[in-house]
Design goal:
The chain has about 625 residues and is an alpha/beta fold. About 40% of the residues lie in helices and about 15% in strands. The protein contains 19 helices and 20 strands. The strands form five sheets. It has a five-stranded parallel beta sheet with strand order 7-3-2-11-18. The chain has a four-stranded mixed beta sheet with strand order 1-10-9-8, with helices on both faces. Strands 17-12-19-20 form a four-stranded antiparallel beta sheet. The mean pLDDT is about 95. It binds flavin-adenine dinucleotide. The site of flavin-adenine dinucleotide has 42 residues, from helix 1, helix 4, strand 8 and helix 11. The site of flavin-adenine dinucleotide (FAD) has 42 residues, from helix 1, helix 4, strand 8 and helix 11.
């Protein structure tokens, strides 16, 4: 028989990024015995890489900012496909979550009068991103970890052990959720180092596993982002929404090839950086879409004045939402106006004094010097789009973060959840999302546990199946190498389900994904269970595959262009499609896609917009309803 280490918890949080840590803190505060599980080392989650900041309408730099303006920007950024309730909760609660971080010990950059400083970012009307230089995620993670350590010290005093109420299992990968009927009963996985199995029995699980970027070759995401949480949720009977919407960040490094995809923070543009093509033209003025024309400068002079006088000038088009900028760069390169390495130029050197660049963007300065031998205080950077963030994710109840679908006891927060950002996320809105919905998920998971009459039980047979599935790649000797399979998957997704999409290519992609699914079912990993990355990847592949299928299917179905989904054959936004979410579920092994109407936006929230603006997004029918209510 196989040895399995067993643990019992009230709440198991899978993922130790901002969302997972904030959820775990809340569960522990609610008195729940809580486990935090992380595939990577503790503190190495994606959140740590976040550079620009966390968006919260604190109004510290411009007192006109408030939650309503933030809500409006978020809905605009997502092209009105957002779950409005999530966008509302996020805008309202983000400031409290940031101030709370200060009570945990966070040290944000300051304004002259000592308030938390806030910086400009694409799509945000006012300076709104609380930040620590360009290393905000590091401070966020550090602070949340510190809070957890302080709780553990308290537990040591009261319960005699640091791990009594909250324990971290890092370098531990969860491969299955275990169910008792329609209820979550636990999670199963392995220690990466020893390959030994571990089983958590728990009535509530919070998924906070982050994104899916590793299905693409050019990505800002690190090795862990294989869509595990998305796939775990699907297999447990939950649903995913908006999976066609991926964010291709406009500015990833394009040179040298070994670092292609690594992020160049949007703060470079927020702090004055401009984009130029190989002809030296500042091209973004040519790419302002109608829906945004009123808010963006028409001339370089006006754009430049905005940095010092934002009340009387409109913002530069470099600060359009990311989907717009990424498409523009893509078009410039396609039209033959790209740089030698196939990107465009991002210039901060001619815009700010060298000293100021080093002060505001220390990591970028260091990154380009070290990786590309480029001094960004003297020369422009070469940049191009990189797969960065998935807007789609687990469909959740906006207030409680409980997963929809047939499963109970499952909660999701952070990048792994869907709805909040609609078809495109604004920069800075993720870090705040993690805190707002992490807290909510942890709190509601705890309430769920309190209300249970009886605890679910883990059946022996489900554990046996989990063990078998996990060991299978090691037991086959004739199957394919996982690395080849991952490369093939990345090629399909990058070439056929990338930034610009077409019907025949998406159909082709689905055919290839079906073939890949059969190949992945026979994947084999050489070696044993002791630290074996090939085996780990073999197990990740089935997750990447099912999630990629959801993305490709939804991308084929959605016949319009909106946010992170661009169809060359349906290049405009279609108001009818704004009313529809594409919902992905699993039926046996088959990915199923359904259409579901979006919840109706509450009237008082619609009233925050001009009718003229609403007319760009809503159907005639919806507008007539709006007019009738206004009359
Ligand atoms: P993550 O921080 O991604 O953490 C996921 C956790 O889940 C990890 O601990 C991982 O090990 C664990 N995990 C995954 N699968 C498993 C499994 N099977 N078993 C166990 N554990 C698992 N957003 C902003 O708002 N502002 C920014 O300035 C910003 N800058 C960014 C810069 C970069 C380079 C990148 C890549 C992203 C940036 N983002 C930014 C986006 C933001 O950082 C992420 O969306 C966010 O951190 C996701 O947080 P999360 O808590 O949902 O998950």
């Amino acid at each position: 028989t196989t040895r399995i280490e067993r643990h019992h918890y009230d709440v198991v949080v899978i993922g130790a990024g901002g969302a997972g840590l904030r959820a775990a803190i809340e569960a522990r505060l609610a008195g729940k015995k809580t486990a935090i599980i992380s595939k990577s080392l503790f503190g190495k989650a994606h959140t740590v890489m976040a550079e620009g900041g966390a968006a919260a309408a604190m109004g510290n730099v411009n007192s006109r900012d408030n939650w309503q303006v933030h809500f409006r920007d978020t809905m605009r950024g997502g092209k009105f496909l957002n779950n409005f309730r999530m966008a509302e909760l996020h805008a309202k609660e983000a400031p409290q979550r940031i101030w709370e971080l200060e009570t945990y010990g966070a040290l944000f950059d300051r304004t002259k009068d000592g308030k938390i400083s806030q910086r400009n970012f694409g799509g945000h009307e006012y300076p709104r991103l609380a930040h620590v230089g360009d290393r905000t995620g590091l401070e966020l993670i550090r602070t949340l970890q510190q809070k957890i350590v302080s709780m553990q010290q308290e537990d040591k005093r009261t319960h005699g052990s640091y791990d009594a109420r909250i324990r971290v299992f890092d370098e531990t990968t969860i491969t299955e959720l275990l169910l008792d009927g329609d209820r979550v009963a636990g999670a199963f996985g392995y220690y990466r180092e020893s390959g030994e199995f571990i089983l958590f029995e728990a009535p509530a699980v919070v998924l906070a596993t982050g994104g899916v970027g590793r299905s693409y070759k050019v990505t800002s995401n690190s090795w862990e982002y294989t869509g595990d949480g998305h796939a775990l949720a699907l297999r447990a009977g939950a649903t995913l929404i908006n999976m066609e919407f991926l964010q291709f960040h406009p500015t990833g490094m394009v040179w040298p090839p070994s670092v292609k995809g690594i992020l160049v923070t949007e703060s470079v543009r927020g702090d004055g950086g401009i984009l130029k093509n190989s002809e030296g033209k500042r091209f973004m003025f040519d790419y302002v879409p109608d829906v945004f024309r009123k808010q963006y400068a028409e001339t370089e002079e006006e754009a430049d004045r905005w940095y010092t006088d934002p009340d009387n000038n409109r913002r530069p088009p470099e600060l359009l939402p990311r989907d717009e900028v990424a498409r523009a760069i893509n078009s410039e390169v396609k039209a033959g106006r790209g740089t030698p390495a196939g990107g465009v130029f991002l210039d901060i050197a001619s815009r700010l004094p060298a000293e100021e660049i080093r002060r505001r963007l220390p990591s970028m300065h260091h990154q380009f010097k070290g990786l590309a031998d480029v001094d960004i205080t003297k020369e422009p950077m070469e940049v191009g789009p990189t797969c960065h963030y998935v807007m789609g994710g687990i469909e959740v109840d906006p207030d409680s973060s409980a997963a929809y679908g047939s499963v109970r006891g499952l909660f999701a927060a952070g990048e792994v959840s869907g709805g909040m950002h609609g078809s495109n996320r604004l920069g800075g809105n993720s870090l705040s999302d993690l805190l707002v919905f992490g807290k909510r998920a942890g709190g509601h998971a705890s309430t769920y546990v309190d209300q249970l009459a009886a605890r679910p039980r883990v059946a022996v047979s489900t554990v046996e199946t989990a063990v078998e599935t996990a060991l299978a790649p090691l037991q086959r000797d004739t199957g394919e190498n996982p690395y080849t399979l991952q490369q093939d998957l990345q090629a399909v997704m990058g070439d056929l389900v990338g930034i610009i999409r077409r019907e025949n290519e998406l159909e082709d992609a689905l055919g290839r994904l079906a073939e890949l699914r059969e190949r992945v079912a026979k994947v084999s990993a050489a070696g044993g269970r002791r630290y074996n990355p090939g085996w780990h990847l073999a197990l990740d592949l089935r997750n990447m595959l099912v999630v990629s299928e959801c993305t490709a299917k939804a991308a084929l179905e959605r016949r319009e262009s909106r946010g992170g989904h661009t169809r060359e054959d349906f290049p405009t936004m279609d108001p009818q499609w704004r009313r529809i979410n594409l919902v992905c579920s699993l039926e046996g092994d088959t990915v199923r896609l359904d259409r579901k109407p979006l919840p109706k936006i509450r009237t008082e929230l619609l009233n925050l917009f001009d009718r003229a603006e609403l007319a760009k997004y809503l159907t005639d029918e919806e507008l007539a309803e709006f007019d009738a209510l206004a009359a």
